[in-house]
Amino acid sequence: MTRNVVPMIHVPDVRATVDWYHSIGFHVVATYGNGSDTHYSFAIVSFGDGQVMFSEGGETSDKRRREVDLYVYADDIDEVYERLKDRVDVVEAPHATFYGMREVIIRDVNRFWITFGQESAFGMLVSGISDDKPELVRKAIDCGQLTLETLNAALAAALAHQTNNNIIETLKHAGAVPPPEVPLGTLESYAGKYRGDHGPDVEITVKDGRLFAAPGTQQPLSLWPLDEVTFKPIAFDGSKVTFNVENGKTVGLTFEQDGYNIEMKPV
């Protein structure tokens, strides 16, 4: 038997739950009713290669978020949204995330969250560069959702890692320009530990002429220069780090994520 993990969710009404999931595109694999054609005590539904089990014994809830979420990988998030938006409770319409996914979130009949996700244009871009796939980079660019800052950072990463020249030329053709040269002394002036009012400390380091940021105990993330004080982590979309300099001294940094700013000071 192939090793696999299948969630089992206890719900108040298995039959109603199965009918609801079938109505949004899930396949009914099996139902068990203890001899009844109308009452289900247990059921299995599937979506693609994934399965979910439903069993009796669950309780209703008015909580904003239940104890379990389902994450469903799909091929076309916008098609899912257009098909379901007038029939289900939508928590969040289609949106891109900083971690490279495009998602839409709905509630099921029992108020459990279901997130449908697919790789975003940014996710495709990062995968294309790291996996050396020019066609994926082109597909990401053709989506028309990438900012020039993101393309510039991607070009910097591609040049640093001596990526496939087709990828480099594709990025340049899309308008990306090589990163500015930041003096080593300037980079070293940013090194150190920073702390904000919330969240983990961030350690800024310099290695091989490049800047890195390590939040808490996480692995360092490379920062690519947009100018002498502004840097972009290629691993996260919609984010950048700006170092605050006064009279030639670094007095802090600002981490920006999708318009939300976190101010941090040297420790």
Can I get a quick summary?
With 267 residues, the chain is an alpha+beta fold.
Outline: elongated
- CATH architecture of the largest domain, by name, is Beta Barrel
Mean pLDDT: 92
Q: Which sequence of SSEs, written as H and E, runs from N to C?
A: EHEEEEHEEEHHHHHEEEEEEEE
Number of alpha- plus pi-helical segments: 7
The biggest sheet, with number of strands, parallel, antiparallel or mixed sense and barrel status, is: 8 strands, antiparallel, barrel
- Provide the domain count: 3
Count of strand segments:
16
Uncertain segments of ≥5 residues (pLDDT<50)?
A: none
Radius of gyration: 24 Å
Distance N to C terminus: 54 Å
In terms of DSSP E residues, the strand content is: 35-45%
Strand order, sheet with most strands: 9-10-11-12-13-14-15-16
Helix percentage range: 10-25%
Q: Which structural class do the helices and strands define?
A: alpha+beta
Architecture overview:
About 25% of the residues are buried. Helix 3 packs antiparallel against helix 4, helix 4 runs parallel beside helix 6 and helix 5 (about 150-160) packs antiparallel against helix 6 (about 165-175). Strands 9-10-11-12-13-14-15-16 form an eight-stranded antiparallel beta barrel. It has a four-stranded mixed beta sheet with strand order 1-4-3-2, covered by helices on one side. It has helices at about 15-25, 75-85, 120-130, 135-140, 150-160, 165-175, 185-190; strands at about 10, 25-30, 40-45, 50-55, 70-75, 90-95, 100-105, 115-120, 190-195, 200-205, 210-215, 220-225, 230-235, 240-245, 250-255, 260-265. It is an alpha+beta fold. It has three domains: about 1-60, Signal recognition particle alu RNA binding heterodimer, srp9/1, CATH 3.30.720; about 120-175, no CATH class; about 185-265, Beta Barrel (Lipocalin). The protein contains seven helices and 16 strands.
